[in-house]
Amino acid sequence: MEKGCVLSKSAAVLLGVFFVVVVVAVGLLAGLVGRETCEVEKESGSAAVSVVPTDGAATPTPYPPGPWDNVRLPLSLQPETYDVLLKIDLENFVFSGHVEILMLCNSSATEVIIHSNKLNISKVTFTDDDGSTRDITDFWFHMPNQFLVVPTGKALREGQMYKLYVEFVGPLKDDLAGLYLSQYAGPNGDPIYLATTQMQPTDARKAFPCFDEPAFKANFTTTIVHKSGLSALSNMPIIRNETNQPEVGWTKAVFQPTVRMPTYLLAFIVCDFGYIELTTENGHTLRVWGRKEAIDSGAAAYALDIGNRSLTYLEQYYDVGYPLPKSDMVAVPDFAAGAMENWGLIIYRETALLYNPATDAQSNKKRVATVVVHELAHQWFGNLVTNQWWDDLWLNEGFATYVESFGTGVVEPTWQMKDQFVIDDLQSVFQPDGLGNSHPIYVPVNHPDEINEIFDAISYAKGGSLIYMMVDFLGENTFRKGLTLYLNALAYRNAFHDDLWRYLTEGAKLDNKDGDLPGNNVKTVMDTWTLQMGYPVLSVVTSGNQYAVTQKHFLYDYTANVTDKYGDLGYKWHVPLTYSQGTANLNTPLRQWMAPDDETVTLQSVSPNANWILVNIDQKNYYRVNYDADNWNKLKDALMANHMVFKKTDRAGLIDNTFSFARSGDLNITVALDMTKYLAAELDYVPWSAAVGSLAYLTIMLERSKVYGMFKDYYMTRVQNLYEHYGWADQMDDQLNTFAQVTAIGRYCRLGNETCIDEAKRKFDQWKSEADPDTNNPIEADFKTSVYCNAVRYGKVDDYDFVWDRYRYSTNAAEQSKLLLALGCNREPWILSRHLDRCLNSKEVRRQDIRSCIQYVMQNEYGRSLGWDFVRAKWTELQETLGGFSSLSRLIATASEAFNTEFQLQELIDFAAKHPNAGSATRAIEQAIEKTKANIRWMNDNEEVIYNWLQQNM
C-alpha cells in the first residue's frame, strides 16, 4: 500500500513552483489543481498525468499536537449524508470532482478531520449551523494518518448540523486501490480502459475525502460524469442520464441515494461492458456484467443462475429481505482480491464470476459458486450490520466463509459442501493457527498495514469454522433465530461481537436451550475461542470402560513462548465434546462440555463392547484429538479392515491429526505413516485431499534428503489404485469424483509415473498440432492444469514458449490462470529466472497475478531457491506493487515453506533485520522464522525414523 510523503516548508514551496510551471505547460489540470496529500504520478499507454502540489500554505512540520495524533478519527462529528460528484476521464487517466458532507456535531470541536490520500485539494468551504458559507484556506494534511485537517475558526456546537465542501483531483492509476484504472484488449488488439474501485479497508479516502472508518455510516448520493457511450455503475440504480453537458460528448449519470452504509462499501465503475439480467422471485433486478466477448460467449450465465438462487435462498435463511432494488455483479480484468461485497455493486475477478462449461473445469465452477454466495452473504452480514471497527473483521468474513460453504451446498446439493468445508477451511486454518505467532480472530489493529495483515485465514477460515461449531452446539434452527434477531435489531448500524453473542443467546432462550450452555450464554463459550489465539488438542486416555480427556494449547513448536500473548485466559477453552464408541453414535454423537478449569473430563462407556472411541464426530468442532497408543492402533486396524465404517470427514480428520501431531512431537511419525497404509483402498476425494495436504509437508521436507527416493516410491503405491480406478475417463459432471480423479492424475504424474506423464504429453502434443490452438483445444477442461504443467516440466523450451504464447493471447481468465501455473513448472533455472522477471513486468503479467506468478515458481522444487532470491532482491518493488491485503504475506509463506536448515533460518533472520518495516508481511516473516525452527527440529527427530520405517514397509 502506498504511503504519503512529508515535505519541509521550504522544499514544498520550491517544488511547488517548479511543478506549477509543468502544469501550466501541460495544461491538463488547469483551474482544478490545488494542494494535495502527496505527489502522485501515472503513466498508462501513451498518456501521462501528473497531479502535483501548487502554492499555498504548506503542511506544518513538525505537526502541532492535536486530535490528529490518533490514527483513529475523533468522534466529534458524524457524517449524515454525502453528495459525491466524480468526473472520470479515461483518456487522460485522471478524475476530478467534489464532495459535500452534511455532519452532525456530537461534541465541541474547532476543526473537521477527515481522511484524504493522494488527492489534490483545490477548494474547501465550510457551512456553519446558521447557513453561512466561507472558504477555508488554512487547511492542511497530517500525512502519517492520511488526515485532511480543516480549521473551522470557532467551536462547533453539539447537536448542530454543518457542511463541508471539498473539490479535488486525482490520478487514475493501475494500483488496484481506491478508484483505479483497468484495461483489456479490444477486438483489434487496442487497449480498452475502464475505471473501477476497491475501497476496503482504507482506500475510499483515495477516491474522495471522507470519514473512512466503518462506524461512520451515512447515505451517499453519487453522480458520475463520463464519456458518452460508456456505462456508469454505482451502488444504486440510475435516476437519470443527462447528456446536455457543457462539454460535448459527456454524460452525467445521477444515482439514487444509498441506504445508510460505510465508505468502504461505496463503488463506482465506468466501462464498456455488456450484461445479462433477470428479476428475482422477490422482485430484485440482478445483472452480471463483463467484457462483451465474455458475455456473448455465455460465460456469465452460471453466475446469474447461482446468484438468483442464492439471493432468494439467503432472504429465506436470514428471514430478512434484501434491502436494495438491484444487485450488479461485475467481472473486471484487474482486481486485487477475489471479490468485494460493495452493496448493490459486487466486483469480482473474472475467474470468480465467469464460467464457460465448454472450456473451464469443475474447480472453476465451484469457485464461481462459492465466491458469489460468499459476497451475497455479506449483503446482510457486513453490509446491513457492519463491524464497529476492523478488529472484528471476522464478523464479516468468518460468517461469509461459513455461508459460502453451507449456502452453496443448499443450491448445489450434490457437491457435499459441508464435507469439503473440512478440508478447504477447517484443516487449512489449523496450520497457521498452530503457530506461536498466530493471532486471535478478534485482534487490535489501527494502522492500515495492520488492518491489511488480518485479511488472512484466521479471519476467514477460522471465523467460519467457529461459526460451524456454534451451529452444531446450538442447533441450526436456534442459530437462525439468533441471526434474525441480530440483523433486525442492528440493521443499518454497527456491531461488536458481543452483540452477536447476546442475540444468539436470545435465540437459545426462545428454544429453551440456554440452560445447555456453560454460563447459560454464548459469550461464556465464545470468548474463549475469539479472545485468544490457537486451539486445543484433546488427549483421550482409555481406562477400563472410561475415557479421561484433558486439553492443552496445540503448538507445532512447544518451545514458543506464548504465555503473555493476547489476554489472560490461559489457553483453555470451553470445549463441546462429541464422541462415539465404535460405530454406535457416529450419526447421533454423544455430547458433553469441557470447561477451561476442568483438569480432566471423564467420558462414560455406553457401549462396553466397542473396540475404539472417536471424538469430534464429523469434524464440526475446532480442535484436534489425540489418543493413547492402544486406541490409535485400533483406529488404524478399523480403517484397514473397512474404512467405510467412518465418515469421509472423520477419515480426513484422522489423517490430518496424526501428521500434525507428528510435526508437533505429540505422536511418533510411524503412527501417521501406518495410517496411510489404508489409502491404497481409499477412493473418496475428501480424505485423499487431507492425505495430499499432510504428505505435502513430508514431500518438501524430504525432497533433498536421502529418504526421498523411497518415500516417493511408497507414496506412488498409495496413489496407484486411485489413479487406476479413475484413469482419464469423463466423470460425468460428478464434482467430487472429478476432484478425486484430478488428485490422482496430479499426484501420479508429479511423483514421476511414466504412464501418467506420457499421457499428459500426448494430450499436450495433440493440442500443439492444432492449426489454431487458441481456438481449438482438445484437452478436457479438468485435466488442463496437470497436462500443461507436466508438458512444461518434462518438455523442451518450445513447450514453455508455446504455453507462454497461449497465456498472452488468451482472453479467458480461468484459462490464463492454468497456463500461468504451468509456466512455473519448468525445471530449467534459466527459463525460471526469465519467467520471474516476466512476473514483475506489468506488460507481461497483470498486477493482480504477480503474486501467484512468483508463488508458482517457488512451489516447484527447481524454483524454490530462485524464487526466494528474487523476492529478496525485489522486495522494495514488491512492497510498492503488492502492499495491500495478504499478497506479501503469502509470498513469504511460500518462499519459506521448505526451509529446514540452520542456513535458511539465518537467511530469514537476516531478511527480517534488513526489513524491519515489512508492513502487512511483518507477521508472516515472524511465522516463517518460527516454522523454520520447527522444521529443523522435525528433520532432526524424524528423518532417520522415516528412513527405517520405509525400509520395513516397502
From TrEMBL:
Gene from which this protein is expressed: LOC109468978
Binding site for Zn(2+): H374, H378, E397
GO annotation, cellular component aspect: cytoplasm; extracellular space; plasma membrane
Organism from which the protein derives: Branchiostoma belcheri
Cofactor(s), by name: Zn(2+)
Subcellular location: Cell membrane; Membrane
Enzyme class: hydrolase
Residues in Aminopeptidase N-like N-terminal domain copies: 78-265
Residue intervals of the ERAP1-like C-terminal domain: 612-933
Protein's name in the database: Aminopeptidase
